[in-house]
């Protein structure tokens, strides 16, 4: 910076000196021109006055010697008179012929005309001064006030030598320029130490600010030769940097407490990192407020998916709920192509390494971190969250490249902060689902209860009408069930009902609904069954399985039971589910009345027989 300062000061001195010289030269040149014109006008007035005298004394021929004598004066190289064409025939004042363009121009315009001729060694001025001649009396004047027709235009032309004036001006300019240059250098020299101190301090501040922008809030050392004001400024700056450093260290620690420990050793700008953390915390707060208003866990998973896609630019991931108590894995949501391990852990969810170890499982080089991720062209990152005592949430991220995987590792703390924030809300939704499920379940058999039938039918029937599908309504009743309770006790009776529930569940589709209607009565809704023959076949199959099933009673004794089944078809028999159940009940009565252990299809004529009974 010192060399730059010296060079800059020297250049500034030269520029300033040249500017002053140029300005002085311009002013001097203008002054010389004005002075030369004034001299020429004075000479012209002298010439005209003398010529008028010669003219009045009738000594016109003596004017030639007078003009020649003037031409020999110092500073005048030549002098002559010119006249307009109207005066060419007369010999007034002995005018000569026009010599150049300046003579022509002054005679045509009546104005002073001049031209400078500058060279390295001398400067000359070619100038012509106009004047008017009175034809009648021969008198002449310059700048005559009243010009009549008798006046004709002429001019006095001179060649003036300005070399002395030029030399004097040049000396003055050179002396002045040298004096200005020396003065500027002296001022710069005397103030260089002060300026250098300011520039050194500027460099120190500049470097310190650059370092602080990367998170390095180091104190600066005081340069030499600082005055009291500069020392005070440095002290204040160091105090400010200390406060800033302590504040950012505290902020960084507190912010890291929100998102957990860093997962990367990459050196990044802590200020930018803090800014990113604050931004994510703000977004996380908004996310938390929104999920509290979501109706169910599916909405929470959808919202979490939008965060992964829009905020973190993650393209492929899936949410998997693993219920250890039920030995069940459920894919809640999948975005992109994921779960390359599904074929291995679907039936055996306990094989999932992430859920089992409750640690992150990430693709690594040279060997497989997860034995069931067989995809060689992709990479995975799995993380686990405990939703409840029995339910684990596993998020499976799949990356196409190692670069994409590294980026995910860098931001996984932020990603987990959203997952951890969502976990309590998901647990609440699961608990609410469980409570709702328990309210709709029969405590003994685990089947849906009559309350569920009432609620579910509100959605099922409109759907069936829109989709134009059939529903087979089976109403089942255990034959002679009261005798079981009376002979073997209620414990055995409960076992018989549980076995019946198991057989019904195992012999219907997942889309079908099995309901404990009350006591030993059950309803099966065969949703989307093709024909009544298919419904009858399902009923007969269940009846056969019940008939063949042996139930342990006590002391090696076995018990076999039978069931009676009534069948009604919706909407073939009626457009109301309640009516369909009543029709199935009428058919069930017919089955019991006609010998039990059979399936009876509802018919219209059965209504009258029931009424008569």
UniProtKB/TrEMBL annotation:
<keyword id="KW-0812">Transmembrane</keyword>
<keyword id="KW-1133">Transmembrane helix</keyword>
<feature type="domain" description="GGDEF">
    <location>
        <begin position="469"/>
        <end position="604"/>
    </location>
</feature>
<dbReference type="GO" id="GO:0043709">
    <property type="term" value="P:cell adhesion involved in single-species biofilm formation"/>
</dbReference>
<feature type="transmembrane region" description="Helical">
    <location>
        <begin position="6"/>
        <end position="26"/>
    </location>
</feature>
<dbReference type="InterPro" id="IPR029787">
    <property type="entry name" value="Nucleotide_cyclase"/>
</dbReference>
<dbReference type="GO" id="GO:0005886">
    <property type="term" value="C:plasma membrane"/>
</dbReference>
<dbReference type="InterPro" id="IPR000160">
    <property type="entry name" value="GGDEF_dom"/>
</dbReference>
<feature type="transmembrane region" description="Helical">
    <location>
        <begin position="172"/>
        <end position="190"/>
    </location>
</feature>
<dbReference type="GO" id="GO:1902201">
    <property type="term" value="P:negative regulation of bacterial-type flagellum-dependent cell motility"/>
</dbReference>
<dbReference type="InterPro" id="IPR050469">
    <property type="entry name" value="Diguanylate_Cyclase"/>
</dbReference>
<keyword id="KW-0472">Membrane</keyword>
<protein>
    <recommendedName>
        <fullName>diguanylate cyclase</fullName>
        <ecNumber>2.7.7.65</ecNumber>
    </recommendedName>
</protein>
<dbReference type="GO" id="GO:0052621">
    <property type="term" value="F:diguanylate cyclase activity"/>
</dbReference>
<dbReference type="InterPro" id="IPR043128">
    <property type="entry name" value="Rev_trsase/Diguanyl_cyclase"/>
</dbReference>
<dbReference type="Pfam" id="PF00990">
    <property type="entry name" value="GGDEF"/>
</dbReference>
């Amino acid at each position: 910076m010192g060399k730059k300062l010296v060079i800059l000061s020297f250049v500034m001195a030269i520029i300033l000196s040249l500017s002053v010289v140029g300005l002085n030269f311009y002013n001097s040149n203008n002054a010389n021109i004005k002075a030369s014109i004034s001299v020429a006008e004075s000479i012209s007035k002298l010439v005209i006055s003398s010529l008028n005298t010669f003219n009045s004394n009738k000594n016109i021929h003596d004017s030639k010697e007078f003009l020649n004598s003037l031409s020999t004066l110092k500073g005048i190289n030549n002098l002559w008179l010119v006249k307009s064409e109207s005066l060419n025939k007369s010999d007034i004042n002995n005018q000569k012929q026009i010599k150049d363009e300046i003579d022509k121009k002054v005679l045509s315009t009546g104005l002073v005309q001049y031209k400078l001729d500058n060279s390295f060694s001398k400067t000359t001025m070619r100038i012509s001064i106009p004047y008017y001649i009175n034809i009648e009396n021969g008198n002449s004047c310059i700048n005559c006030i009243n010009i009549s027709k008798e006046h004709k235009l002429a001019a006095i032309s001179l060649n003036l030598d300005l070399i002395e004036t030029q030399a004097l001006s040049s000396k003055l300019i050179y002396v002045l320029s040298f004096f200005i240059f020396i003065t500027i250098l002296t001022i710069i020299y005397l103030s260089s130490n002060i300026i250098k101190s300011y520039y050194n301090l500027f460099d120190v501040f500049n470097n310190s600010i650059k370092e602080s922008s990367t998170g390095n809030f180091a104190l600066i050392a005081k340069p030499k030769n600082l005055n009291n004001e500069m020392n005070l400024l440095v002290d204040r700056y160091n105090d400010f940097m200390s406060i800033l450093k302590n504040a950012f260290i505290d902020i960084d620690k507190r912010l890291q407490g929100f998102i957990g420990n860093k997962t990367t050793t990459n050196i990044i700008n802590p200020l930018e990192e803090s800014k990113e953390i604050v931004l994510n915390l703000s977004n996380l707060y908004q996310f938390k407020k929104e999920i509290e208003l979501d109706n169910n866990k599916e909405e929470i998973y959808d919202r979490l998916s939008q965060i992964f896609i829009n905020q973190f630019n993650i393209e492929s991931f899936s949410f998997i709920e693993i219920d250890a108590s039920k030995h069940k894995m459920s894919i809640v949501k999948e975005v992109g192509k994921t779960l390359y391990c599904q074929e291995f852990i679907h039936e055996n969810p306990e094989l999932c390494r992430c859920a089992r170890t409750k640690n992150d499982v990430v693709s690594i080089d040279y060997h497989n971190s997860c034995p069931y991720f067989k995809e060689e062209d992709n990479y995975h990152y799995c993380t686990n969250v405990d939703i409840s005592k029995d339910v684990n949430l596993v998020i499976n991220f799949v990356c196409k490249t190692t670069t994409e995987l590294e980026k995910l590792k860098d931001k996984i703390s932020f990603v987990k902060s959203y997952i951890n924030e969502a976990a309590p809300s998901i647990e609440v939704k699961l608990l609410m689902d469980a409570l709702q499920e328990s309210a709709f379940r029969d405590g003994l058999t685990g089947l849906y209860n009559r309350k569920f039938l009432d609620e579910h039918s509100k959605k099922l029937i409109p759907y069936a009408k829109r989709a134009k599908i059939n529903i087979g309504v089976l109403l089942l009743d255990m034959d002679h069930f009261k005798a079981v309770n009376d002979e073997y006790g209620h414990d055995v009776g409960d076992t018989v009902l549980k076995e019946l529930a198991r057989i019904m569940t195992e012999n219907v589709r997942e889309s079908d609904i099995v309901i404990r209607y009350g006591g030993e009565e059950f309803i099966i809704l065969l949703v989307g069954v093709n024909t009544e023959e298919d419904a009858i076949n399902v009923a007969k199959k269940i009846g056969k399985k019940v008939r063949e099933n042996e139930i342990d009673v006590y002391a090696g004794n076995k018990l076999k039971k039978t069931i009676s089944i009534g069948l009604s078809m919706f909407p073939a028999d009626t457009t109301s589910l309640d009516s369909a159940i009543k029709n199935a009940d009428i058919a069930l009565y017919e089955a019991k009345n006609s010998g039990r252990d059979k399936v009876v299809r509802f018919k219209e004529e059965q209504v009258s027989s029931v009424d008569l009974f």
